[in-house]
Amino acid sequence: MKKVVCPSCGLVNLEKFVTFPFCAACGAHLPEKEPSKFRVFLTRPVKPLYWALSVGFGISILAFVALRIAIETRDRTEKSLLIYSQIPRRVAPDGFIYSSFTLDTTDEYPSATFADVRLRFAKETLQKFELVTITPQPTTRESFGSGQYYFWPNLKRAEAVRIVLVPKTTGDLPFRFMVYAKDHLPLQARNSILVTKPDLAKHTRMSENK
Fold first, then answer.
1. Residue 189 sits in the same domain as residue 147
2. 70 and 137 both lie in a single domain
């Protein structure tokens, strides 16, 4: 006996049904040739629960893809800051300490300027050294916690910051400073400066002569 699957609702209709060649369930006209099982599956009505699950699964896939794209394209970490610093090992003959630094970064495509640059001296450092000048001149100077901060809104990547100090005491003195820049990890420059009595005395005589 001929069996025909309704392409609309999926009901198996027998040739002896009084409704033949129309579907006994939905009334759709039955094909003369039975469609393939794959076609029947595709044309079969989807139950609401299956439809909801399918739509939910599709949305989840799209959300996952979007999240992956966002993770891959966002800047995952702050860039590493580089400091090319010059810190003398001894005090200059005139009794002053001349130090300088320039900023750079490990970024493959570095910008021409650094924003929100901060130079920090710890109080321990300023107890051993007196700051005379900083060039270019910072726009602001503030004290926070145990440090003294000097601010520049922008510094060019190759622009040198020059620092002039005088020692307040003698000995092999540790000299350190921290540099911060927006979107970069802070970095410390450090060395020790040997201050002997003649250097300190010479600076004292020069100050008195002025």
1. yes
2. no
Read off the pLDDT of residues 56-98 as tens digits, 9 standing for 90 and up: 656 656 555 555 554 444 455 668 888 899 999 999 888 899 9
Please identify which residue in the block is written with the tokens 């579907």: 23
Domain of 54, in residue numbers: 47-74
| Tokens 């860039």 found at | 79
Tens of pLDDT along 141-183? Answer: 999 888 999 999 999 988 999 999 999 999 999 999 999 999 8
Spatial separation of the C-alpha atoms in residues 143 and 128, rounded to whole Å? 17
What's the pLDDT score for residue 61? Answer: 63
- Cα separation, 127 vs 148, in Å, equals 12
Regarding whether 14 and 105 lie in a shared domain, the answer is no
> Rounded to whole angstroms, how far apart are CA atoms 53 and 57?
6
Quick one: which of 59, 203, 32, 30 has its CA closest to 130? 203
What SS3 class is residue 14? Answer: strand
The answer to whether residues 33 and 54 belong to one domain is no
Total number of domains in the chain: 3
Residues 37 and 51 in one domain: no
Longest dimension (CA), the chain: 126
